[in-house]
């Protein structure tokens, strides 16, 4: 009997599952992050190989009919030297062929069997993609923190700090969002009503610029929390984030297109304000939420091996 393997390799963790032709999950494996843009390629490749080995368990690697790896940072493999590192890892595990795809493709496939549609990702970064034949054929955004990532956790965190600086610059009373940002960046004393707020403006700028820019993403949860407390600044930030994200995903669609939109990432959680506002703006469109990227990867591998009638894995 043959099986297939699906892998979801992200920046912080990697998961793999082995699935048989009936859709039953035969084994699972886990490893650390494997984005070759944020981890050394040899390390990233070794972690994917480790997760695959775990999923195989006692299965014969030679009986692997197909393997799909959804990888954050997959574009790095366009460098032949980097691709060779990963190909060596597949060879060591004993499986071939391995198809590597962008992680939004497996996220899309986790939510729908529809071959065409759109995917909108908003986690630490953001990107929208047009899906045709289950392949991401074009993108909008996804340029990284310096050039874009509109509506992402990074963007939300940056706007939270900027909003706090505006409050301090005007000499206004800090609201829930500004207080949370100040406490996180400068410590509890920064929100003491008895403290001198005059130096806080420069101190916050200095603190934000002293860290890696992507660290601004840690302020994003404060925006959601402050929104729930009724902070107008947080309401305005989340509304702008939703509009930017919707603008990007609609730019990845044809006029009047009736295919689904799959939402991916913590920022787009149905429980969060940005996710709720995005869904409200996408009225009249079928909106789905990605469930588990590794299931999408395994199903894509099953389609490769067994055809369109391959059943979808239901748990990992």
Walk me through this protein's architecture.
It holds the Pfam family BcrAD_BadFG. This is N-acetylglucosamine kinase-like BadF-type ATPase. Residues 5-301 form the ATPase BadF/BadG/BcrA/BcrD type domain. The chain has helices at 41-56, 80-93, 103-111, 153-170, 176-186, 200-209, 220-228, 232-251, 273-281, 293-306, and strands spanning 3-9, 13-20, 25-32, 64-71, 99-102, 117-122, 126-132, 135-141, 261-264, 287-289. Helix content is 41%, strand content 20%. It is built from 10 helices and 10 strands. Helix 1 (41-56) runs parallel beside helix 2, helix 4 (153-170) crosses helix 5 and helix 8 packs across helix 9 (273-281). The relative contact order is 0.16. Strand 6 and strand 7 form a beta hairpin. A 5-stranded mixed β-sheet has the order 3-2-1-4-5. The two termini are 20 Å apart.
């Amino acid at each position: 009997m043959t099986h297939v393997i699906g892998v979801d390799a992200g920046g912080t963790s990697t998961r793999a599952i082995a699935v048989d032709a009936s859709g039953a999950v035969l084994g699972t494996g886990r490893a650390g992050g494997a984005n070759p843009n944020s981890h050394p390629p040899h390390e990233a490749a070794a972690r994917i190989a480790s997760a695959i080995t775990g999923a195989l368990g006692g299965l014969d690697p030679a009986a692997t009919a197909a393997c799909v790896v959804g990888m954050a940072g997959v574009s790095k493999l366009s460098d032949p030297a980097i691709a060779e590192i990963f190909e060596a890892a597949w060879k060591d595990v004993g499986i071939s062929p391995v198809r590597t795809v962008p992680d939004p493709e497996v996220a899309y496939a986790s939510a729908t069997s529809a071959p065409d549609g759109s995917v909108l990702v908003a986690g630490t970064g953001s990107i929208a993609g047009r899906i045709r034949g289950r392949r991401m054929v074009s993108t909008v955004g996804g340029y990284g923190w310096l050039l874009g990532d509109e509506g992402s956790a990074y963007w939300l965190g940056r706007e939270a700090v900027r909003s706090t600086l505006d409050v301090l610059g005007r000499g206004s009373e800090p609201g829930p969002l500004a207080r949370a940002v100040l406490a996180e960046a400068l410590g509890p004393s920064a929100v003491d009503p008895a403290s001198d707020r005059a130096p806080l403006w420069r101190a916050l700028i200095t603190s934000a610029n002293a860290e890696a820019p992507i660290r601004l993403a840690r302020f994003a949860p404060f925006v959601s929390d402050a929104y729930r407390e009724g902070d107008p600044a947080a309401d305005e930030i989340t509304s702008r984030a939703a509009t930017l994200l919707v603008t990007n995903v609609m730019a990845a669609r044809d006029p009047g297109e009736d295919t689904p939109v799959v939402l991916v990432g913590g920022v787009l959680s149905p429980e969060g304000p940005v996710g709720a506002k995005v869904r409200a703006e996408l009225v009249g469109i079928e909106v789905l939420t990605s469930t588990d990227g590794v299931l999408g990867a395994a199903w894509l591998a099953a389609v490769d091996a067994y055809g369109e009638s391959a059943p979808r894995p239901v748990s990992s």
